[in-house]
Design brief:
Helix content: 25-40%
Oligomer: single chain
Protein name: Proteasome subunit alpha type
CATH superfamily: Aminohydrolase, N-terminal nucleophile (Ntn) domain
Number of strands: 12
Distance between the termini: 47 Å
Order of helices and strands: HHEEEEHHEEEEHHEEHEEH
Structural class: alpha+beta
Strand content: 15-25%
CATH topology: Glutamine Phosphoribosylpyrophosphate, subunit 1, domain 1
Mean pLDDT: 84
Family: Belongs to the peptidase T1A family.
Subunit structure: The 26S proteasome consists of a 20S proteasome core and two 19S regulatory subunits.
Keywords: Cytoplasm, Nucleus, Proteasome
Subcellular location: Cytoplasm; Nucleus
Number of domains: 1
Length: about 280
């Protein structure tokens, strides 16, 4: 790296090193991981759930700022009523990417008279990120994101993009500090899902009943439980801390607009996981 620094390959994003690398791109991807926030999403045929850590600013001594409104700290954002994004990285870069995504979605809706498909939105964001790798006067966004939606034709869809201009669709995906650990945990969950028979799926297909405050039959909860189990497996949060350090959103054909779960609802899911594992 010292040789690269002396040659200036790590100071110009338009210059490849002799090894064929763009160091500024690697630095941007590393900056995302250094934010110490992890999030993941998982889908099946009928629903999609997303879980993300909630990192709150701390004062001296790692004490939480009592003046802070914790409900305003989030990595989950609505682009449209139908599309939600999970953005992890530098907060300012994430907000900039969010505003770009909303602008793209509004322009598409105005021009064509219909909501933008999630894959088209992801492609346009990736195209913007790729252009940033070509110009020396543009700093790359330290931001990686997941785009989630309930498509009319494809059902639940999940796409990932990063600052290099790359994007792809996934069945389940993790981003952030513990991305590799997320992928390992999600692979085990998907293999376990494939091995389950129909009766086991029905037994684990639960949902929060807002009247009784218990888990009842429904299409959303299986993916929520799987997502929470993956986060617990990588130790992204402890069950003892409850819902204070995470945020969860879900959508299904019955609820096509992404719904953010309350702390009480998340605690019910965590209790169910603790009692059944």
């Amino acid at each position: 790296m010292s040789r690269a620094s002396q040659s200036g390959y790590d100071r110009h994003i338009t210059i490849f090193s002799p090894e064929g690398k763009l160091f500024q791109l690697e630095y941007a991807l590393k900056a995302v991981k250094n934010c110490n926030v992890t999030g993941l999403a998982i889908k099946d045929e009928s629903a999609i759930a997303v879980v993300a850590q909630k990192k709150l600013p701390a004062q001296q001594g790692n004490q939480q700022d009592v003046l802070l409104d914790t409900s305003t700290v989030t990595s989950l954002h609505h682009v449209t009523d139908e599309i939600m994004v999970l953005l992890i990285g530098f907060p300012g870069d994430c907000l900039s990417m969010l505003y770009k995504a909303r602008s793209i979605a509004l322009e598409y809706s105005y021009k064509y008279g219909c909501p933008i498909p999630s894959n088209v939105l992801c492609q346009k964001i990736a195209d913007i990120n790729q252009v940033y790798t070509q110009h020396a006067y543009m700093r790359l966004h330290a931001c990686t994101g997941l785009i989630m939606a309930l498509d009319e034709e494809k059902g639940p869809v999940l796409y990932k993009f990063d600052t290099s201009g790359w994007y792809c669709g996934y069945k389940a995906c993790g981003i952030g500090n513990k991305e590799q650990e997320c992928e390992n945990a999600l692979e085990k969950i998907l293999k376990r899902r494939e091995a389950e028979n129909m009766q086991q799926q029905l037994q684990s297909n639960l949902q929060v009943d807002t009247n009784t405050r218990k888990l009842s039959a429904g299409p959303e909860t299986k993916v929520i439980i799987e997502a929470l189990k993956a986060m617990i497996a990588i130790e992204a949060f402890s069950q003892d801390s409850g819902a204070n350090n995470i945020e969860v959103a879900v959508c299904s054909p019955e609820n096509p607009t992404f719904k953010l779960l309350s702390q009480e609802e998340i605690d019910l899911y965590l209790t169910h996981i603790a009692e059944n594992d």
